[in-house]
Specification:
This protein has helices spanning 22-36, 38-44, 53-84, 116-124, 144-151, 172-182, 201-211, 232-255, 270-276, 286-296, 316-337, 341-391, 394-421, 435-453, 468-480, and strands at residues 4-6, 103-109, 133-140, 159-164, 187-190, 196-197, 216-225, 266-269, 300-310. It is α/β, with parallel strands linked by helices. The chain has a single domain (1-481), classed as Spore Coat Polysaccharide Biosynthesis Protein SpsA, Chain A. The radius of gyration is 23 Å and the shape is globular. The protein starts with a strand and ends with a helix.
């Protein structure tokens, strides 16, 4: 089938092209000075006591500690609610498939030649009438490797290759906006190159839309990994995914809080998605950002009882690239929506605003704050109780100790609960050393923050390499031969 070409549809709302507005730049600069400079000055006693350096350092540490405790407490509430939440999309036999709308499947591809045959097989296995499907394979027009691979594959009639014209920024959401302009389906869904959606997923999503109010404009399927036992990294990654998609997201939908969507397997009412402005082409986690705009528009997200299987990153370098992109996008999303905080408060309401702070802002905050708290713990051991008592009044000190001990235990408990819910039993014992994984996450957060400060990299899309399991298997065969 001859490829078609398209250009992106620019979102009309605020976007992440500008990283920070003026007041945000001032606030971040002040915070960095407080975090980096003031605690050191307090310890070295560079300034006279009357200057109050030590008191400012205490205030910063106390604020960070209180925020950390609030985030942990809110996450605990979400986990408890997630254990009780039932998902949508499981109709009885009598009313199954009561609505069979036309469906557009958007598949953004970039340097994915290695997985094309498996991708076509996975999408062809979807149990949905092909005459009601439109599958758009969205490929950058200079990605000769992927385009050549597609020419070598026999595509079903309802598959169409769409070449995305080269322009800045070169991101997945820009490709998705190109696809959205050409989408003919009443509903549309995003799948990544390595995805293996449950065959009945489109029917389940359509059934969920049919039984929901018109305010429900998106349903999110659960994402899980088909290779959790590859190595230690994939075991931790699979537990984290299980916690997020099996517990956290269902709880957020129950609370009608803003839902940061997953990057794939989110199903939309196509016309409403166009009215919302599509995806932010400058945001490298456009899914989370779109979830916020859905909530701000008074619309809803539901979670359906269907799984899409993905490949867990099994190589540390590839994992760092992927995670730093996710965290960079979370920071972008937070900054975009906090440009006008009082407007955001009005549109989300107090509860939604608080949830936004804890989930979208709290995720990168805790990961960036962790090294600060770890450093303070080392300083306590190295410089004795007297230095700590100078900077930490007793309430802050004991709150910090509680957040470190109880917070780590709670985080471990979340992962174990989610692993048991998803039957990831072999990996549970490896969660006892999961703080190593948290250190990797903080490293990725630091990289994300650095890239945002770099004008050349702030909108750079770090490509995640897929098909690593296949590559590793081929390498093993070659060595044995």
């Amino acid at each position: 089938m001859k490829p078609t070409r398209g250009s992106a549809m620019p979102p009309a709302r605020d976007n992440a092209r500008e990283v920070m507005c003026a007041w945000q730049r001032l606030a971040v600069a002040t915070l960095l000075i407080a975090v980096v400079l003031l605690p050191g000055l307090a310890w070295l006693q560079v300034a006279p006591p009357a200057f109050g350096i030590r008191h400012v350092a205490t205030l910063v540490i106390a604020t960070f500690t209180a925020a950390y405790v609030l985030i942990i407490g809110y996450k605990t509430l979400l986990v408890l609610l997630g254990m009780r939440q039932r998902t949508a999309g499981s109709p009885s036999t009598s009313d199954k498939h009561r609505w069979v709308p036309t469906y557009t499947i958007l598949v953004p591809l970039y340097k994915e030649a290695a997985v094309l045959r498996q991708l076509v097989a996975n999408l062809s296995a979807i149990d949905y009438p092909t005459d009601r499907q439109q599958v758009l394979l969205l490929v950058e027009d200079d990605d000769e490797e992927t385009l050549a691979g597609l020419r070598a594959v026999v595509l079903p009639e309802h598959f169409q290759v769409v070449e995305v014209a080269e322009s800045f920024p070169r991101t997945k959401p820009k490709a998705c906006n190109v696809g959205l302009m050409q989408a003919t389906g009443e509903l549309c869904v995003i799948y990544d190159a390595e995805d293996r959606p449950e065959p009945s997923q489109l029917h389940k999503a359509a059934d969920a839309f049919a039984s929901a109010s018109r305010a429900t404009v998106c349903v999110q399927a659960e994402l899980q990994y088909y290779n959790p036992e590859t190595n230690l990294l994939t075991r931790w990654f699979a537990a984290e995914y299980a916690c997020n998609f099996s517990l956290i997201l269902p709880a957020l939908t129950r609370l009608r809080a803003p839902v940061p969507l997953g990057g794939t397997s989110n199903h939309f009412r196509t016309e409403v998605l166009r009215e919302l402005g599509g995806w932010d082409e400058y945001n490298v986690t456009e899914d989370a950002d779109l979830g916020m705009w859905i909530a701000r528009s008074g619309l809803r997200v539901a979670v359906i009882d269907s799984v899409t299987w993905e490949e867990a990153n099994s190589r540390p370098g590839n994992w760092i690239r992927q995670r730093s992109r996710w965290l960079k996008g979370y920071i972008q999303t937070y900054l975009v929506h906090m440009r006008h905080p009082f407007r955001l408060l009005r549109e989300l309401g107090p509860a939604g605003f608080f949830s936004f702070q804890c989930v979208v802002g709290g995720t990168p905050f805790t990961l960036l704050a962790n090294p600060v708290f770890w450093s303070l713990t080392i300083a306590y051991i190295a410089f004795s109780q007297r230095w700590v008592s100078d900077v930490f009044p007793a309430p802050v000190f004991y709150l910090g100790i509680a957040s470190m001990v109880v917070g780590n235990l709670l985080s471990l408990w979340y992962l174990m609960l989610a692993s048991m819910k998803r039957a990831l039993y072999p990996g549970i014992k490896w969660l006892l050393i999961v703080p190593v994984y948290w250190a990797f996450m903080s490293l990725a957060a630091a990289k994300a923050a650095w890239q945002l400060m770099n004008p050349r990299l702030r909108h750079h899309w770090e490509k995640t390499t897929h098909g690593l399991i296949v590559d590793d298997a081929r390498a093993s065969l070659s060595e044995s031969a």
